[in-house]
């Protein structure tokens, strides 16, 4: 009896049926389950705002093995690693990311000691900060979507969701690094793309600019989004 109640309360809400009638499994936990809070600053904010009593009896999803309260944990680095991973080889991907950060550090230190002391404050030495700036500079704002009006398809510029825009920026950086061929390793080409993107240069930046130019060229159809 307990097993049946558990199945009805946890498994059944997470099932979805498509048009063919087959059952597809998604998350085991229903949508009303809150995501876990594992950051120390977020936990302190909850206690400061006295929300701990309200959240005491709220169902919460368990944290994954990659969620940690360490100060070295960076959500963007985690997402970039997952986008770079292929065939589930996460250990290999983490080694590539470590070598990438190491090469970024070496390149920035060489530049740091080659410029006059008065210009050294403008050089970023933290590889994570370069990654953040590169992704922010490559993140698009608009995209084109096909909308039918009067039986005619129009390419209409619409605002892009933050999750999709961030994923697209990461994908552009990775693809730009892989387009340089097999002459160099990925941990040698990826640092160059990240450094160029952090300075608003490189292939990934040009891809974002081309997308915005296409949206600008089709701005006459922007009102079709609300009709």
Automatic annotation (TrEMBL):
<keyword id="KW-0689">Ribosomal protein</keyword>
<comment type="similarity">
    <text>Belongs to the universal ribosomal protein uS7 family.</text>
</comment>
<dbReference type="GO" id="GO:0005840">
    <property type="term" value="C:ribosome"/>
</dbReference>
<dbReference type="GO" id="GO:0003723">
    <property type="term" value="F:RNA binding"/>
</dbReference>
<dbReference type="InterPro" id="IPR000235">
    <property type="entry name" value="Ribosomal_uS7"/>
</dbReference>
<keyword id="KW-0687">Ribonucleoprotein</keyword>
<dbReference type="InterPro" id="IPR023798">
    <property type="entry name" value="Ribosomal_uS7_dom"/>
</dbReference>
<dbReference type="GO" id="GO:0006412">
    <property type="term" value="P:translation"/>
</dbReference>
<feature type="domain" description="Small ribosomal subunit protein uS7">
    <location>
        <begin position="66"/>
        <end position="219"/>
    </location>
</feature>
<dbReference type="Pfam" id="PF00177">
    <property type="entry name" value="Ribosomal_S7"/>
</dbReference>
<dbReference type="InterPro" id="IPR036823">
    <property type="entry name" value="Ribosomal_uS7_dom_sf"/>
</dbReference>
<dbReference type="GO" id="GO:0003735">
    <property type="term" value="F:structural constituent of ribosome"/>
</dbReference>
<protein>
    <submittedName>
        <fullName>28S ribosomal protein S7, mitochondrial</fullName>
    </submittedName>
</protein>
<dbReference type="InterPro" id="IPR020606">
    <property type="entry name" value="Ribosomal_uS7_CS"/>
</dbReference>
<dbReference type="GO" id="GO:1990904">
    <property type="term" value="C:ribonucleoprotein complex"/>
</dbReference>
């Amino acid at each position: 009896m307990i097993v049946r109640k558990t199945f009805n309360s946890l498994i059944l809400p997470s099932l979805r049926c498509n048009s063919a009638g087959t059952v597809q499994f998604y998350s085991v936990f229903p949508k009303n389950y809150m995501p876990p809070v594992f950051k120390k600053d977020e936990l302190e904010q909850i206690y400061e705002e006295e929300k701990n009593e309200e959240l005491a009896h709220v169902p919460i999803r368990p944290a994954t093995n990659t969620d940690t309260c360490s100060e070295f944990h960076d959500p963007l680095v985690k997402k970039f690693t997952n986008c770079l991973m292929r065939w589930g080889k996460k250990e290999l991907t983490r080694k590539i990311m470590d070598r990438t950060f190491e090469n970024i550090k070496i390149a920035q230190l060489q530049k740091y000691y080659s410029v006059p002391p008065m210009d050294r404050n403008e050089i970023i030495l933290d590889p994570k900060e370069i990654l953040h700036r590169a992704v922010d500079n490559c993140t698009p704002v608009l995209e084109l979507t096909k909308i039918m009006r009067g039986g005619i398809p129009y390419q209409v510029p619409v605002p892009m969701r933050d999750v999709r825009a961030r994923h697209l920026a990461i994908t552009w950086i990775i693809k730009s690094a892989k387009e340089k061929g097999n002459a160099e390793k990925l941990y040698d080409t990826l640092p160059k793309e990240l450094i160029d993107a952090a300075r608003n240069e490189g292939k990934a930046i040009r891809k974002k600019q081309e997308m915005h130019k296409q949206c600008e060229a089709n701005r006459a159809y922007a009102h079709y989004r609300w009709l």
